[in-house]
Write a structure and sequence with these properties.
The chain has 492 residues and is of the alpha/beta class. The protein is built from 18 helices and 15 strands. This is Glycosyltransferase.
Length: 492
Amino acid sequence: MDWRRLGLACLCLLAVLPNGQCGRVLSVVLPGPQSHLFGMKKVSEAVAARGHAVQFLALDTDAAKLQPTNIPISTYTLPPRRPGELDAASLKLNGPQTFLQAIGQITNLFENACCSLLSNDTLMDQLKEYNPELMLAETMSPCTQVLASRLDVPFVNFWLAAPIEPFATSLWRGSNRNAFTPNPLAYFPQMETNIQTQHMSFVERLKNFVTYWKFQWQDYTIVRPLIHGFFERFGVDVNLPRERRRLTMTLCIADFAIEWLRPMPPNFKLIGPLLPEPARPLPADLEAFMEGAGDNGVLYVAMGTVATLGLKERQAMAAAFAKLPSRVLWRLSKSELPDENAIADLHLGNNTKVATWLPQNDVLGHPRTKAFLSHCGVNGLYEAAYHGVPIVALPFFADQPANADKAVSRGFALRVSHQDIGTERFPDTIKRVLTGPSFSAAALQLSVKLRARPRTPTQEATDCGGAPFALLKAACNSLAGGLLNGGKKKFA
């Protein structure tokens, strides 16, 4: 009888939820790349437009980046940075990094942010008074699980990276941070293998297998003790069934047009890339520069908001750009380009223009843009594919090397290493991508596929695949627990 009542209640919820049943959502913007912040903002505003009450929680240094917005923002501050720690306000990692190197540098930042947030009694009281029914947050930081536990609320994992393995499936297993995705070693390349096909040879499968177990060993000996120590410090037992049920769904900003094929569970949804959109007109000075390139076109160069290059690498790249027949539009960070002297130190060619900010989506959508020299972060990867622009991939860390391999496999990219900078291979590879018709043809095919989605990625995230579904699932879980407990059976 209890199960009949449960089924009837869920059917009633299914009937009324899409027609106006609204919930309270807390969108948590944790320290990280600015591109992640922009994606979170876009989805949160779409959720609010559907009638849900939404509130941002962010660092005080990130609050200004969320503007303009009509969504209220609750903020907290970080304690003074100790020597050697990353600066959350301008998160930078210099040069290529292994997975463990990147994790080691960013974990302290996550822990400091979590301590500052949870120790702010006034803010925590405000959040409890707001009483969210659902939390939207990125599980890159274990603080997501801790905050959800303190507020006693389920959460949707907003996965703002490509679904690479074994990062998604194996690493951090047991901490409720995995995405519960199949990881078929026979045809799914693991991160840091540099395998650029799913049709692997015996040697490649053997390498794939060994790499998987290497990450398993690193997980058990280094990463998992670190993360579980984090949870123990904040009094969260992630092995409790209640804590394991908090993660209700994962929304991933990727598309099988580029991603490796594999089966996916129903609670892991590839919603597609959020940031790409039709290009808007460029400012007058940029438009003049782009049009002045003529048929040779423009190479756009950007390494994201986190990765930085050393001075010698930048100088070698500038020398290589000067040899190209195309114009070069190069975005560098303010730390790399603090003043006019830094520009002079690069010894730029007459064909190169540098800036500390550029409208990337609009530049990639310009008809004169012929290629994109990129670190291959997930947003840049999909923006280039959306606009049909081939890529020269120069990955640094995290999901970037695996993204580069997928781009090469799809035929619209070539990959270079940091060791190639300063050699002839670097400008030669760029020229191949700029002039090779096969790369632009493959990029245009991907553009057609990405633009042909029946619903936009934002709609995917906010319709039945997003907040309403998660709210319904949380309500049904809660109802099921109450019914079963009332029937003297513990819900686990």
